[in-house]
Amino acid sequence: VLRMFARLPTYGLKNTQNVVSRRHHSEMNVSSTSVSSRLQQIRDGPSLKEFLSDPAHSPISQNHETMEPLMPSYLEQTTRMLGQGRKVFLETYGCQMNTSDSELVLAIMGNAGFNATQTIDDADVVLINTCAIREKAEGRVFSRLQDLKRMKKVQKRGFKVGVLGCMAGRLKESLLKPKDGLCDVVVGPDAYRSLPHLLHNAEAGEGDNINVQLSLEETYADVRPVRTGGNGVSAWVSIMRGCNNMCSFCIVPFTRGRERSRASHSIEDEIRLLSEQGFKEVTLLGQNVNSYNFIDSQEEPDIDILNTRPPPLQDVVPMSPGFRSMIKHKAGGVRFAELIERIANIDPEIRVRFTSPHPKDFPEELLHVIAKYPNVCKSIHLPAQSGSNSVLERMRRGYTKEAYIQLVDRIREIVPGCSISSDFISGFCGETEEEHRDTIDLMKYVGYDQAFMFAYSLREKTHAHRTMKDDVPKEVKQRRLAEVIETFNHGLKKNMDSMVGKKEVVLVESVSKKSDQELSGRTSSNKPVIFKSTVNGEELKPGHFVEVEITEALRHSLRGNPLRRTNLSGSLL
Asked: How many CA atoms lie within 13 A of 205 on its CB side?
């Protein structure tokens, strides 16, 4: 170990004043000096974490104008020359996380000298950010890639095509097969920084341009997103990446890797910047957003080289009662409830939402934070997937129907008026009619305000693919799905009807799609509302908070009369 430290180079260290020079190390005479003396020299030198640290992943500094560079200046200059003003067109498929990732990609491409375009006819590069959660989602992407291939042939255009995201991570090299010729570059969710260089290599005809390597560290904390497609009112903020849950039906851990949380101060900095820019709502994103746990490596003690065992992992993280996790967590750090509270205090006039959570990570501390702050939205997504205990066990969800119902009851007790949404899968491996009826019963009990409902789609590499049979016939899946949707719609109608006569604070988001004399917005409980564009002679605009009296319940939205402009504290404006 001593000889290893003697040979280690000294460049790239943060605390260079404490570094023993390479020459000094090389002149050590281990045989003639006591072990205690050598250990003292090592203690005075850099710790192991100095050699493992990567400045590319350093968080955003407190001062936005003095962010550390992503790479050495000479490489940064080279990267900025790669684009040479070429135009990039980007299409996004799938979840909100993909939308957020696309904003990061545009920032990375912009820093490399590329320009974004909203028109594919102008594009030199076409990027497709993809989803692999279901077979249907991949089918849409394959169809689009075939369209692009035909477009290149008919129009005799030479634009490069890149496939990004989860589908890239799942299919890897197969997307580059010569017989298909569907794309030129394949880049996974943790490798977006390499995209400009891979496109440059593709232009030069150099090799297979693919990077789908997963990372245990990458959070893109130092990349400022380019928000081009939003309404200037709401913004996505990614706070963690990856998933450790390993549900048997889910491909996400294989395409997006293990969980890692973005530095809390970099998230807070981004929220402050959004506040300064006039945004009125942020949605915190993560594959398992409420398992967020940032542990600052600077606060961890140095590793004792004479006792190299890692610190123990402790299952001390508070979870919802009756829920269990497949992994143990490190003690300490900034957890999700604390992060939400910090963000809520940055600007009381910015609404805070989050998605997508796991039911296991709703300790009562988090529920009390949601209830305490007016600007933390009273809307919780609580993916159930099934109402059958036996199906939940096969899915490896870590809870029972009874524990889930207990959590729903606690949410409604602690956060009155909170809306609850969910996900459901119909026709999972081995699902019986009785198990399907258990799901229907759960839906009737809860009465969800929103739900994402799908027939099961077997995904390669998952636990279900390796150990189970997709044995529910397609027509049975579709029939059960139709029953799930019907049950949801019945409960939704009850919820919407109960809103009539209530007064709600609505954030104006945009002009109504059906009339330019009306506006649309959402309540804290995430219910869409349509109302007139003026109140008391004042023209309302996106970003305004308005008190609206609900007058009519439609199938999936509400109508109302605006009463006054207000803010989240209830003050008249």
From this structure: 1
